Amino acid sequence: MDLLDGLNPAQKSAVQVTSGPLLILAGAGSGKTKTLTHRIAYLISKKSVSPDEILAVTFTNKAAKEMQSRVNDLLGVNTSIRNFMPWMGTFHSVCVKLLRIDGDKMGIPRNFVIYDEDDRTSLIKQAIKQLSFNDKEIKPKSVSHVISSSKNSMVGVEEFSAVAASPQQKKIAKIYNKYEELKKASSALDFDDLLIETVRLLRDSKETRSRWRGHFKHILIDEYQDTNSAQYNIVKLLVGEDRNICVVGDDWQSIYSWRGADFTNILNFERDFKGAHIIKLEQNYRSTSAILEAASNVIAKNKQRTDKKLWTSSATGAPVQVHELSDDLEESSLVSDRISSHVALGARKFGDFAVLYRTNAQSYTLERAFLRMRIPYQIVGGVRFYDRKEIKDIVAYLKLIYQPNDSVSFNRIVNTPTRGIGNISLEKFLTWQVNSGMNIVDALCKADSIPDINLKARQSLKKLGVMAKSLYSKQDSTPPSEIINQIIELTNYKDYINDGTPQFEERIGNLEALMSDAQNYVNLSDFLEEISLMSSVDSFKDGEQVTLMTLHASKGLEFPVVFIVGLEEGILPHARVFDSSPSELEEERRLMYVGMTRAREELHITYARSRLNFGGRVYNPASRFISDMGASGASSEDSTVELIQDFDTPEYYNIESFDVGDRIKSNIFGAGEIVDVDGLAVTVKFDNGKSKKLNTEYARLEKI
DNA sequence: TCATTTAACGTTTTT
DNA sequence: CGTTAAATGA
User: Fold this and answer.
1) Strand C neighbours among A 679-698, CB < 7 A
2) Whether the predicted model's global pTM rises above the 0.85 cut
3) Which of A116, A190, A222, A588 is catalytic?
4) Which of A221, A215, A256 is nearest to A235 (CA)?
């Protein structure tokens, strides 16, 4: 098979220029992934580059997997031959691999654990407590944010402390320092550490640097516009003398500056790598010209951008439809009505549709409408699978088994399920453990010899330790799924979560899903790495269901029909950018652009005059992006954008009135009886004995 | 001293 | 609405 077949001239040269630095400026839908996969296959089969010598960095793990299988298809190679594989993954996952191999040179133990956002905030809380600062004045979340952004711009503790001027900043510097100490004691690295420790490793260890530089003959970076300072440094450190570096990106689609991404990295590529080839991919193969034109009109309003002319040879297609609704409920009805009628007509499958929104909270109303209409859907992101409580609990056990020093995981599970260990006993144990010099698990095993702790607490601690220790020693001979099973059995975890609500079934289901997921891994290390670095889009499945996700999560995907909802000032663009720099407004506009260019055939935009936001009703004007699209009044004459006012259902939702004594049913809590009514609030005594005060406006209660 | 009940608070986007 | 921190009872 000729690897250049089916490529346009620009794509062909992007494949064939195989030596020296190369910058590919790829517009939305211009066949970027195709070009990259062909390039990799070309390097392997035509230039005899060994797959192992190729490093390809993608933005998500899913993109990496997809790229892997497409390369395999092109080469006709069996996917199961694991050694015959380029290095593919996100910056984070590649860094984990490098650090597991060479991290010991920087004093990082081979079995370090990875702390996520939650782990980090709870460790910061501990740090604040230990420094006895007033945890009311200093919010752990905001400290976490400060630490993360300084790490992303390569500012370490020392530097941060040196620069800290205000009393507030000095406090944060102390917390930062303490946090680093505690994290080190737990043998853990947070997300940002994965990057900056790799930079340190490559910068400080000459031997390591030259070894990896020699190893990677070709480096490819996708979504280069979204690299941050640390990632940029890694790239510069890894590029060898041949300078075979190929980066792909589109500054118009840069939507992660709040995470430290800096799209000037891509604008400066020529300066960084002198003599670089530049190839522009400007033909769009994805969208109809109506969609592309509307999207181009939106992005044209941005001042800070490179000039590009994206074009397509596809037909005009249906105009972009802009729907005005009276409120968020009608917005959801419109979306679900459209979807279900198109499917009923046989024109589309559920899997053809995506609904995109600015904030995760917006999925709520949509979800309810979909449930009502029996539309199968999947939510990408939001409350991620691995963020659920029961899953995080079990994973915390796994982490503690893998890394017996992991204090955050220990704190999470020490009394989960409740085993009679309170705060006081815990404090006493921890001070004893620190003094003993033992790791947490070893100390637990000796807990029965600690004076002045309750007998009951002492026994429980020891029992937990013995369990962790025995699983620790079995971790190499026992598959991860079996370890999970034993944790659940030994701790009676199922009894703990059985609270008699219908949600119990769902939780059990989640645990089973976790176990079956674990069956794909042979050892604990791989499994933990995978779930720590799993991103929201990684769990995205193409299938027979509508996809709901944030605009951010939609990057890189495409759908025949796309709905973008909540096009209101304050939502998109988000209210937070109003009182900050104009560049943030431009990023909101790029976000809109990314969303619009996901659509292949139909694009629907909706906005509501009023919306129920947490607590009260808000009235937002239509987003400025709607007029930016080139909507010329309410005309169906315009071939690009069509404005439609959908007020077909002027019905106001009748709030059912409840009386004391009514029997009701809640999807969440099951059946019960109303014992008190206070305006919109009702108190319900549920059949499982628990009572709850609910707002009838939100809680979907049904009379029975 | 622990476990359960009640009050307060919160929403931008995420590797 | 959900989660998490204080407050109360056993």
Assistant:
1) 694-695, 698
2) no
3) A222
4) A221
